[in-house]
């Protein structure tokens, strides 16, 4: 069991005290942020004049998106060391995954963000461990670093997760939480993702008796890892049998590190081989390989939900536990109800890791409608409410003020308040706020798309096939515009089934604007384009080339015009097209 140095009961008490007093803690957190950064040019420009109360803050500092902050961030990136966004100069930059808009965004990173990351990791761990206690051992973590580089101004840059993995605090926290990765650093920080993945799998097998849980940042990487396992398992067994690493791993540092772990072990090779051949269609693969694993852990909500079905298949009876909620710009909430399945999971906001505001979406839609008829200068800004003022059942766009120079920042996520943990809200992640699919009066979000794909994929399941991954696009190249859904399917489906799937997709978008437009043909027939196996892997590789890391990768669910390379990859790999006849 866990060592004394980490007193779980005390930590739970601390969390309870913090959340009972969430309103006051929020005001104190804002005060601290504004005191530490009062000298920053950004806050000075808005005339805050050293005031640290929420009213002055909201009156002086505007709501912003990354676009407004970009010029400030760019100066930091280019090496201007003055107090621009923060009191203390920023020395490190994070690259957000940027899968939504097609290119990674630069975000300031500092020690305070590391500290809040550790705080959130510890918080969710204590609740998780109360429910699913782990023993001494290791974690099979499919984590990867991005390319690290120096910006023009000499600042270190990499994805936020890479910056975290590199920090000394990460290592020490993981040790205390008994969550040390079973792979050596050379594998985590290896320059070739495919080679790192192979070696993560190999390390997992070598330490199979010690693995306490299997994890990654986002669930996508876990599914990807075990899909790969299905391809390479015999090679892995051979490596274990002979104690020699496959020649496909060529990075010298990885080979050296692995040679220290890999010894000929025919018994283990036979055992793994037997386990694999004994499985039916790989159901229950994870517990079969890792008998001591207590759960599978990683972010499983939002755009990760489509991978749950496959993950459950690999997990067999093992519980799936979603990780926390945050972004490169800072953490928001911890999963303090780990017993809930990911579909019902919520995140309790930690009131001391940032200052949070919430724009009510219902009021905002009404206001937006009124605003549309007004000239720009008369339009009102949306009015956010504070952390403890949110209402159960309502949806909000979340605004973050962090310790790293982002003030009243519109993160772009929609959340729903499902309850309170003491006086801090528990949030359900709904979707990214930017509307996904729209041709005219129709509005369909990431969630609507996910539901449509789930419904249509049921028709494939009858054929023992599945949707490996999917995305969408609005095609305006012919009149009227229409939705295009791209599917990668696990095998060959008949044309008949696929055209049924296409009709089902079209009928599953139940938004009134869509249905009425389809009936009068002001939106064209939905098109299903099936792409070659491996196309989504090519998209992942494309983002890795831009400096993203697999750890933070999220398949873009709608490919807009700014994502032209992704669109090219998709279009170049189409093998079959279907047009819906559902509204003929
Ligand atoms: P990144 O751009 O890589 O920093 O990713 C941050 C984004 O990932 C957030 O703004 C969310 O849209 C998404 N995200 C992070 N955590 C979760 C979560 N627990 N559930 C759903 N989506 C999440």
Automatic annotation (TrEMBL):
Keywords: Ligase. It holds the Pfam family GH3_M. Residues 447-559 form the GH3 C-terminal domain. Residues 347-432 form the GH3 middle domain. One of its GO terms (cellular component) is cytoplasm. The keyword Ligase applies. One of its GO terms (molecular function) is acid-amino acid ligase activity. The keyword RNA-binding does not apply. Belongs to the IAA-amido conjugating enzyme family. This is Jasmonic acid-amido synthetase JAR1-like. It comes from Quillaja saponaria (Soap bark tree).
């Amino acid at each position: 069991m866990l060592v004394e140095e980490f007193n779980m009961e005390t930590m739970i008490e601390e969390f309870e005290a913090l959340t009972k007093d969430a309103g006051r803690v929020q005001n104190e957190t804002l005060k601290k942020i504004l005191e530490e950064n009062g000298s920053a040019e950004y806050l000075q420009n808005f005339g805050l004049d050293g005031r640290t109360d929420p009213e002055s803050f909201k009156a002086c500092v505007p709501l912003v998106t990354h676009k407004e902050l970009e010029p400030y961030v760019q100066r930091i990136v280019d090496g201007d060391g003055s107090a621009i966004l923060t009191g203390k100069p920023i020395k490190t930059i994070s690259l957000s995954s940027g899968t939504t808009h097609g290119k990674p965004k630069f975000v300031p990173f500092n020690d305070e963000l590391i500290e809040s990351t550790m705080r959130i990791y510890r918080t969710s761990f204590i609740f998780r461990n109360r429910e699913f206690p782990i023993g001494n051992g290791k974690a099979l973590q499919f984590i990867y670093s991005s390319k690290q580089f120096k910006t023009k101004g000499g600042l270190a840059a990499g994805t936020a997760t890479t910056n975290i993995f590199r920090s000394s605090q990460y290592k020490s926290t993981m040790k205390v939480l008994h969550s040390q990765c079973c792979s050596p650093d050379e594998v985590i920080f290896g320059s070739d993702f495919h080679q790192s993945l192979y070696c993560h799998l190999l390390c997992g097998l070598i330490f199979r008796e010690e693995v306490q849980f299997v994890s990654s940042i986002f669930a996508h990487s876990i599914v990807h890892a075990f899909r790969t396992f299905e391809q390479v398992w015999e090679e892995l067994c051979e490596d274990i049998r002979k104690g020699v690493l496959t020649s496909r791993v060529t990075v010298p540092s990885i080979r050296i590190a692995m040679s220290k772990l890999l010894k000929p072990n025919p018994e283990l090779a036979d055992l793994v081989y037997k386990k694999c051949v004994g499985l039916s269609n790989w159901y229950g693969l994870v517990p079969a390989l890792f008998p001591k694993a207590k759960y599978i852990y990683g972010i499983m909500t939002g755009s990760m939900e489509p991978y749950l079905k496959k993950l459950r298949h690999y997990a067999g009876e093992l519980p799936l536990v979603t990780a926390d909620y945050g972004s490169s710009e800072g953490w928001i909430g911890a999963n303090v109800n780990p017993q809930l399945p990911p579909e019902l999971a919520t995140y309790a906001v930690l009131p001391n890791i940032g200052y949070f505001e919430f724009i009510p979406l219902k009021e905002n839609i009404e206001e937006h409608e009124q605003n549309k008829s007004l000239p720009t200068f008369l339009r009102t800004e949306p009015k956010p409410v504070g952390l403890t003022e949110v209402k159960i059942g309502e949806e909000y766009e979340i605004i973050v003020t962090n310790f790293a120079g982002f003030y009243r920042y519109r993160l772009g996520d929609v959340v729903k308040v499902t309850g309170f943990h003491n006086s801090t809200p528990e949030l359900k992640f709904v979707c990214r706020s930017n509307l996904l699919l729209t041709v005219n009066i129709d509005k369909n979000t990431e969630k609507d798309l996910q539901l449509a794909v789930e419904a249509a994929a049921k028709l494939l399941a009858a054929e023992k096939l599945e949707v490996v991954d999917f995305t969408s696009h609005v095609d305006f190249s012919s009149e009227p515009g229409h939705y295009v859904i791209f599917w990668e399917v696990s095998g060959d489906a008949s044309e008949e089934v696929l055209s049924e799937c296409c009709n089902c997709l079209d009928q599953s978008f139940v938004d009134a604007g869509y249905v009425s437009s389809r009936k009068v043909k002001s939106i064209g027939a939905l098109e299903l384009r099936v792409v070659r196996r491996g196309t989504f892997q090519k998209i992942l590789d494309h983002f890795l080339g831009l400096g993203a890391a697999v750890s933070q990768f999220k398949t873009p669910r709608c490919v807009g015009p700014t994502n032209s390379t992704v669109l090219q990859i998709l279009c170049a790999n189409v093998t079959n097209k279907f047009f819906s006849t559902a509204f003929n």
